[in-house]
Amino acid sequence: MASFRSNTGSRYSRRLPALALGLGLATAALGTASPATAQNPTAAPTHTSTAAAYTGSSESSGNKAFYDAVLKSVAERQAAHPSLKVVTVYYNASSAPSFRSQISSSASIWNSSVSNVKLQATSGTGDFAYYEGNDSRGSYASTNGHGRGYIFLDYAQNQQYDSVRVAAHETGHVLGLPDHYSGPCSELMSGGGPGTSCTNRYPNATERARVNQLWVNGLAKALAQVSKAG
């Protein structure tokens, strides 16, 4: 699990047990969106294999597992529609209603930053999903062990850190980027490393180039594997 936390205080920690989430109504507000407005948000998948959190020590295997799960899902859809020119990754945010604005902003940031892959909301089955609630591990990106990925957004952590940065950071794992907590605030994937005062929400030039490269080369390899399997 790779999470979003600071070097002082709690970091985005990494643990692998099944999730035990308290998804009751939260009383504290998150910007203009209060978790109390969420109507019984759906619990995140209970079988967590690997995860990448916003703060804490990074785990490259967890980062890669999440990216690979999303890539496989996208490749299967692309193989069925070879004429599609734009690689689109679909996400479902219906289980994170308190963070609707932050998730939308995160998608817009990434869509304006990279050219080889686009994020698009869906009300159906997506390539990954967002969930919300209370978790001592904070916010994180994870695979569910069944070929799908999801992002969990923690109420308390999103009050402490810039909420759009948290969402954009975790979404960076969807696109293949690992954590780099020792990096400066200008690096989106430094997560909570620079501390709560960091509000940069945008990937830097190196991060943008890496995502574009991954989705050209990685998708080509994934499509070849899907073709062989078919």
Automatic annotation (TrEMBL):
Region of interest (Disordered), residue spans: 36-61
Positions of Ca(2+) binding: D162
EC numbers, comma separated? 3.4.24.77
Cite the InterPro entries for this sequence. MetalloPept_cat_dom_sf, Peptidase_M7
Q: Where is the active site?
A: E170
The answer to whether UniProt assigns keyword Membrane to this entry is no
Cofactors per UniProt?
Ca(2+); Zn(2+)
Per UniProt, the cofactor note for this protein states: Binds 1 Ca(2+) ion per subunit.
The superkingdom listed in its UniProt entry is Bacteria
Point out the signal peptide segment.
1-38
Q: Which reaction does it catalyse?
A: Hydrolyzes proteins with a preference for Tyr or Phe in the P1' position. Has no action on amino-acid p-nitroanilides
Tell me the residue numbers annotated for binding Zn(2+).
H169, H173, D179
Q: Where in the cell is it found?
A: Secreted
- Keywords per UniProt: Calcium, Disulfide bond, Hydrolase, Metal-binding, Metalloprotease, Protease, Secreted, Signal, Zinc
User: Which family does the record assign?
Assistant: Belongs to the peptidase M7 family.
Task: Spell out the protein name for this chain.
Answer: Extracellular small neutral protease
Query: Per the UniProt entry, what species is this protein from, by scientific name?
Result: Streptomyces echinatus
